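Hello again,

I reread your note about wanting to compare the complex against the isolated chains. To keep things tidy I'm splitting this into two emails, and this first one only covers the full assembly. Below are the input lines as submitted, including protein chains and any nucleic acid or small-molecule components. They are followed by the predicted structure of everything together. The single-chain runs will come separately.
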Amino acid sequence: MTNPTNLQTLNRLTASIENLRDGPHAARPVVTEIRPTKGLFDLELEGLWPYRELLGVLVKRDIQILYRQAALGIAWAILQPAFSVLIFAIIFGHFAKMPSDGIPYPIFAFAGVLPWTYFAEALRRSSNGLVAEAELIRKVYFPRLLVPVAGIIAPALDFFVGLVILLGLMLVYGVMPTWNLLAVVPLLALAGFQALAIGLWLGPINVRFRDIKYTLPFLIQIWMYASPIVYPLSLIPKEWHWLYSLNPMVGVIEGFRWAIAGGTFNVLPLLISVAVGSVLIVGGLVFFKHMERTFADVI
Amino acid sequence: MTKNLAISAKGLGKRYRLGSSLSGHDSLRDLIQAGARSLFRQPAKDPKPRAEFWALDDVSFDIERGENVGIIGLNGAGKSTLLKILSRIVTPTEGTARIEGRLGALLEVGTGFHHELTGRENVYLYGAILGMSRQEVDRKFDAIVEFSEIADFIDTPVKRYSSGMYVRLAFSVAAHLEPDILLLDEVLAVGDFTFQRKCMDFAHALERKGATILFVSHNMFSIKSMCQRVIYLKKGKVVYDGPTDEGLKVYESDCRLAAAPWFYPDAGGKRVSITDIALRDSSGQDRSVFDFGEQMTIQVQINALDEIEDPNVIISITREDEVHCGSFSSSMEGLKIDRMSGVGTIELTTPPLKLVSDKYTISVVVRERGFEKMLSAQIGTSFHVKHDFLSETAFGVFYEPASWRIAEMETRSKQA
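Full-complex prediction:
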């Protein structure tokens, strides 16, 4: 230790560590058990709680970097769905004269595009998140489940920005919001739940087979046309509604239209959506947990 | 007195499958193809039992609170796997471990940084990833920034940082985690010399605070200075667990000789083998750490099964980063041997070692008739040169003081 800088460094470091010693965790004995995977339903969900703060930080990070260094910034949250709605309104509303249950077509389309855009982004993030965080997963421990969960939370910001625009558009078209609008929040949660349910399956497969990354855009596009976004559910023959509603997004989008523009409330698609989502998410959790153990080895 | 255990590992094992990591199929296409094939054909050939290997095999140990333990072993002995299991990054195939206390693993700093975020934002992000609460980071923020010495850039996106700044900030966050148990991997000790010093100082400061440290290193000098106990892993198994001095002896005698990967005996060469390479100081003691400027004696034991004519023994010194620093040749330096057979020992005393502070490896090559035929080659033991500030980043390969004088200087600056 002849070098004065080293001594300085050491003293400073020692001092800073001494100052910090009285941290709140000093009294809290943390015990960690490490063992191989036990049973199929050994989900260790209780282990998530201490990491709730990290979840918040991951979401915050995703939002912080979302539009950074994009000149238009948060305006993209509006522009993306707005352009889709514009195109749908021209092609399906104006030229194809698509029925829209008596709602002005732009409002009709917007009410479908908005939850769909959220769902698509949430699905994309929860499926690709693990691969995107590969560096972290190889080097640091944290419950991997946080990654898809953070993936469905961050895009909600865009959703709410879009919702404000939709409300403005409703005023333009003279569609008055009602108390139904409050249903938007649980419906958004249901859309996120569906995205997570699928993401829990696709994420771990993506870790193993990057093919998912390339398949996902197609899947999302096909799925969009299989959902009542540019056309109403009433276009589907009634006796097939149950089959059509196996697509869990049918219930979400139909519920959304009801929340925005009223009309008849279709309870069947919503119930089917909740049921399908619940089955997928339970299976997804088991699958994810089973695969999680090997992420660091294969990613 | 009841034992106050920090880490207790019982029968830890980690199996890896060789080749492709999970199912042997690299993409979905392969999997589908294989699936389709097995539909039409009966399982063609019994797929050969996939090669497995145990990176860690039945590893058990108890570490008491406040103990500093070095984990040593050759590359691939399972050291990193062990740290990864203890830090919960990978799951063991077998066995359990119990860890009491907050664990900090510095296996690689800065992996949690996001390059689009500013230094400030990254401090919070990385802190949370390492397990600090927001209040904790708030409380330590100033100390972290001060320690990193980059206060001026704290609101700049880290993508505009130099790599040195990046590492300093990341390390400062990690250093303030203040864990009860620290897993420290040697890979951390890359980077410039000051940074390495900071790492070591940090570990020492923690040690004084009673933290338990698990330290993986190839640097026997650091192990000796930090750890009272070593666990020596060999092919995934614990072969020694006990006091450092004895452990290092076992380790060093084990890795004294290793086959030189680049050596292929020349055709028609005679059978010669190098059976031992020993390093001693001027008083004849076995040593692995030498001071800068000290002389080293290298003894090479050679077993010539065939008679060699005019043997030339070449001893080379290679630095850890594969820089070949120099060689000595017995025939060039005037050791004349006409013939050699049977077992014999040749001794070389080096000039004062003017190499910079680092780890070096000795390799020995035996040639016949000057530089004609290469008969045998062996990678031998390693040694460290110790010096307080002569690091390879600043001083290159060797240091020899030069003579300076002022050739010309304006009077103005002289007065200033």
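For quick reference: The domain at 258-395 of chain B is CATH 2.70.50.60 (Coagulation Factor XIII; Chain A, domain 1).

B.
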